Amino acid sequence: MKPTKKKPGLKIYVMTDLEGCAGVVAWESRKDESPWNIRMRRQKSRLLTGEVNAAVDGAFAAGATEVVVDDSHGGAYTIDFERLDPRARIIHGRERPRIMAGIDESFDAMLLVGVHAMAGTKGAVLSHTMSLETREIRINQKPIGEIGIFMFVAGAFGVPTLLVTGDAAACREARSHVPGIATVAVKEGYSRYSALSWSPKRSRKMIRAAAEAAILRRPRVKPFLLKPPFAYQEDAFAADADASASSPSKLPDTWTTTPEIRAETARELIDKVWGRDV
């Protein structure tokens, strides 16, 4: 990975997922072709796009000159392309060179929109870590979910994470990594598949305001860093074993553990685990 020369302006990276959006309490089926399922998938796409647009609008209100959105959920084509704020550019599609493709030292900050808590978190809506086969991911023996992984990758390029939106559990997880980080809880989980949500309109209003405020206080927030050297390890269930588990206590009690992946630097670990730039 070659360092990228810093350009003038305020450049923001918006990393997105679906499970943390208000109104979303079930995974979409990508195999069900019934009219009902198609309708529900389109609705979820609109919900995510609305929250992303709110963050983008808040970023520009705070002085952003460029915003790049990473459509990363599932098939990586969840955001409604025709409804996306026209000021933003979007990374979408599969088979990318690495996780969070495109992020580098030219970015000033990252916002996380619609994210969820790690696998096994009590009271977390649609909790998992990267896939439904993963029981736990650890870096240097510290359990870490997708929120921490996204922060870790951004931090490897010197990019601070300023805002996290999702359910209340996701917000707590974010604050455990970066105390004082701005968060917006658009819903509170009752279980893995139920929640008390704010309406889309209210959620978007909160996200827009928080994004603007978080970017304005950017100089006070440091990138998320872990101390090197690094040792990465995963515990994995059998394929899709936890997809139907309604609570952490009902997860399978058998799993396999991968050999450690070691790296001297954060960027080396990113290359080894999540792909490298080409």
Number of strands: 12
Q: Report the end-to-end length measured between terminal Cα atoms.
A: 8 Å
- The low-confidence runs, each spanning 5 or more residues with pLDDT under 50, are none
Largest sheet: 7 strands, mixed
Number of H/I helices? 5
From the structure provided, what is the oligomeric state, counting identical versus distinct chains? single chain
Strand-pairing-aware structural class: alpha/beta
Q: What fraction strand? A: 15-25%
**What is the gyration radius calculated from CA atoms?**
18 Å
Give the SSE string.
Answer: EHEEEEEHEHEEHEEEH
Strand order of the largest sheet: 3-2-1-4-7-8-9
| Large-scale geometry | globular
The average pLDDT is 91
| Helix coverage percent | 25-40%
Describe this structure in words.
This protein has 278 residues and is an alpha/beta fold. The protein has 5 helices and 12 strands. The protein has helices spanning 35-61, 146-156, 168-177, 200-216, 266-274; strands spanning 11-16, 66-71, 89-91, 109-115, 134-139, 142-143, 161-167, 182-191, 194-197, 230-236, 256-257, 261-263. The strands form 2 sheets. Strands 3-2-1-4-7-8-9 form a 7-stranded mixed sheet, sandwiched between helices. A hairpin with a 2-residue loop joins strand 8 (182-191) and strand 9 (194-197). Helix 1 runs parallel beside helix 4 (200-216). The mean pLDDT is 91.
Write the layout of secondary structure elements.
Elements: E1 11-16, H1 35-61, E2 66-71, E3 89-91, E4 109-115, E5 134-139, E6 142-143, H2 146-156, E7 161-167, H3 168-177, E8 182-191, E9 194-197, H4 200-216, E10 230-236, E11 256-257, E12 261-263, H5 266-274
Parallel strand pairs: 1-2, 1-4, 2-3, 4-7, 7-8
Antiparallel strand pairs: 5-6, 5-10, 8-9, 10-11, 10-12
